[in-house]
Amino acid sequence: VYQVFESVAKKYDVMNDSMTLGIHRVWKDILVHKMNPSPGTLLLDVAGGTGDIAFRFINYVRSVRERQLQRKLRHHQNLSWQEISESYQEDKSKSLGDSQVVVCDINKEMLKVGKQKAQHLGYSEGLSWVLGNAEELPFDDDMFDVYTIAFGIRNVTRIDLALQEAYRVLKPGGRFLCLEFSHVNNPLLSRLYDLYSFQVIPVLGEVIAGDWKSYQYLVESIRRFPPQEELKAMIEDVGFFKVDYQNLNSGIVAIHSGFKL
Amino acid sequence: VRCQLCPPQRALQASAVLRRASDEQKEPFASSSQQQSSSHATDHQPEQEPQGPRPSYTGQGGQESEDYESEEQLQHRILTAALEFVPEHGWTAEAIAEGAKTLGLSSAAAGMFHSDGSELILHFVSQCNTKLSELLEQEQKLVQLGEAEKKPTDQFLRDAVQARLRMLIPYIDKWPQALSILLLPHNIPSSLNLLTSMIDDIWHYAGDQSTDFNWYTRRAVLTGVYNTTELVMMQDSSPDFEDTWRFLENRIADAMNMGNTANQVQSTGEAVVQGLMGAAVTVSNAGTSRAGR
Prior knowledge:
The structure holds two protein chains of two kinds.
Chain A: H1 2-8, H2 12-19, H3 23-35, E1 42-46, H4 52-75, H5 81-92, E2 100-105, H6 108-121, E3 127-131, E4 144-150, H7 159-169, E5 170-181, H8 187-209, H9 212-224, H10 228-238, E6 241-248, E7 253-259
Parallel strand pairs in A: 1-2, 1-4, 2-3, 4-5
Antiparallel strand pairs in A: 5-7, 6-7
Chain B: H1 13-19, H2 28-34, H3 45-48, H4 71-82, H5 86-89, H6 93-102, H7 118-144, H8 153-166, H9 175-182, H10 188-205, H11 214-235, H12 242-259, H13 264-286
GO cellular component, one term (chain B): mitochondrial inner membrane
Main location (chain B): mitochondrion
GO molecular function (chain B): lipid binding
């Protein structure tokens, strides 16, 4: 798995766009929207190498924070200039409102690409990049508000261990969110999808990234991955409550959510 | 109070939060053995139990047993805690997140609820209705014990509606927002249900024994009175809402007079007119220029 991603790292984003025809951006947007993070949230994004989820999270929290500040200012009509400027300064310095995201990935190359992207796009505060294994996270217990793993969990050898680690590092009340390719329930779509996956994707992989085998592996790992209900049961087994999933594009992708209560 | 279950008992972090409500100080390992009866994940349980710090594999077994608080009860607690943040944040997921934080949970727990705050509002309404029932129950007891006089129907209705509407006062600024959310299609079944059962309750304690078609009329009328008074209350800026209570008094008086007319069909129609009139009063008070005027 490591070598697959080493070779894939640089072209990862380009391949994502071409494979999914850009829809992966929508899926990731939906994931962050579903998370609905409030300022002050601490997010752990596992297998988040190139930072897609992390950046979306930061954007979302920033806009929520702006709205909050606007609302506060509206209430401040009666204060003196002194008081207003003081509170303004204090709020300005916290444009993210203490929210933070830790991006953890097993692969150095992916993290490198992610860091470069962050610099390029101008994300400086609230981001950390940590090298780590999803089956054995280098974090203390009860640390994070939200744990996300987008298109990463199917690459983990022992999914149950990754789920346990997720449970461990989440605070009580914390949320587990998993975005992953899943089982298509529509038979017609399923056939088209299979056709596309096995015929088109490896070819794209060869043409764009010069790597047929990695993308062949990708498509096969998607087929081997447990379907929605089975993953839901696995998540419940680890101790999460209110576990549920939402199918996107009739099952091509599914978002699983659970709470540590 | 919150962190009484300290780190060595981390194995049951899973149920720690849920258990707090029942206030039982059971031995962690004794209670964990109760969860052994779970059907899930039985493979790993026996070896893992003795090792304290390792996260417990125990599944949903303890969830429904009577010693443990259920998810629903925890959700209710979060919503109740969230109410105090409503004046500041409105009926939103933010208020729920703040409520969750006061219980020692992560703000992400607000994700358990619908993002438009519907559940918070429905929870509040249901709580108010329960409080009203208790109030009316107590009053009835006093009457039965002979410690209080039985009120004439119109006064009874007036007092009951006023008591119920007064519960909105702390949240009155954000209540219009709540009303509009309650009118959303996916909320209408629940909100209508709560409304009708509250009205039924009031008539029950008013001593309404009728089972004839009068039943429907009475409920329609009182529902009309309640809804219109609520709308008027939104616009009212008089001290202690005296305008609203006067409006209420007049509507109840009209309703009583209406009950004396022989024609029942006409009175149901009148209830509708009442509703329209109340809405018109509201609209004209708001001073908005409506189409057609």
